[in-house]
Amino acid sequence: MKISATSALVLNWTDPALWKSPEAIAYNQNLDVSEGEKLFQLFSAEESFMHLQSVSGRKYFMKNTVCNFLDALHKQDLSGQVLILAAGLAPLSIEIASLFPSSQVFDVDKYLMHDKHALVNGEPQNIEFIACDITDLSSLQEQLTKHDFNKDKPSIAVMEGIIYYLPLDGLKSIMKFLWQNHMAFACDICLKPELVHVQTRKYVSDVFRKIKDEVGLDFINFYSAEEITSLLEEAGYTKIRVTNMQHIQKERTGDQYPFTETDSCWVMTVYAE
Ligand SMILES: C[S@@+](CC[C@H](N)C(=O)[O-])C[C@H]1O[C@@H](n2cnc3c(N)ncnc32)[C@H](O)[C@@H]1O
Predict the structure, then answer these.
(1) Is there a cis peptide before residue 22, judged by omega within 30 degrees of 0?
(2) Which of 9, 12, 84, 110 to mutate to test ligand 1, by most ligand atoms within 8 A of the CB atom?
(3) Could you read off the pLDDT tens digit of each residue along the chain, which spans 273 residues?
């Protein structure tokens, strides 16, 4: 299956060792990422190395955050639900659903959900694929109900690699919707370039310029840790933890390199409940 250029770019920049279940490994191997080739070629080996570290770090955070959430429930003999918004063709839902067969996972994206469903082909069975614009909250609510999302079960929502492409009002409404539905929330943001260390700032400016030029985006929204915290508070969340990639890199690889300063990386991860 061919996939869109930006999805393919992100998949090219993911350490495949992150996926442990046979289902996610098989799925990943069957994806054809050649559509992202032209975009991928615009980056030097050094740039690709830096983006591989930052994308792999954010994916590591999302997977671990969801696994920790479900593990904690499991210990109390409970099962949870996972809502992945703007899931794209990434293997996260397949990995989580395979590792937690008693949890229901909901993959939502505007595009390619039918193809993803076909490629997964019932292995694992506990994923619902929903084609929906995530800023259209009445449709999202309707679709979730149609797919048996249970409002009374503990749930976590993930928004990875999407917040920078959403208008601010759309993001605010989604956060409010998730809070009103009692969902814990994991996401990543891209820092405003001026908040990134001068030695690595060029990576953030360049990546979005190249993506913008190649796929014709008209805006990118950057945030600071304080701004995303206030938006989450405004939505209703009270416990908010923003983590920089230096910490995640050390946990993931055993070394902070190449994020040697706290502000070396342009991606920050967020957990809220
Ligand atoms: C860069 S990809 C990220 C995919 C995946 N979350 C990841 O991190 O690998 C962005 C995804 O957001 C989806 N998307 C963008 N705007 C959307 C919207 N309004 N509603 C649903 N999906 C959207 C795109 O189709 C694409 O799959």
Answers:
(1) no
(2) 110
(3) 456 777 788 888 999 999 999 999 999 999 888 877 888 889 999 999 999 999 999 999 999 999 999 999 999 999 999 999 999 999 999 999 999 999 999 999 999 999 999 999 999 999 999 999 999 999 999 999 999 999 999 999 999 999 999 999 999 999 999 999 999 999 999 999 999 999 999 999 888 888 878 777 788 899 999 999 999 999 999 999 999 999 999 999 999 999 999 999 999 999 999
What Rg, from alpha-carbon coordinates, does the chain have? 18
CA–CA gap between residue 19 and residue 21 (Å, rounded): 6
d(CA 220, CA 206): 12
Domains of the chain, start order: 58-272 (3.40.50.150)
Within 6 Å (CB) of ligand 1, which residues are found? 6-7, 10, 86-88, 90, 109-111, 133-135, 160-162, 165
Is pTM, for the whole model, over 0.70?
A: yes
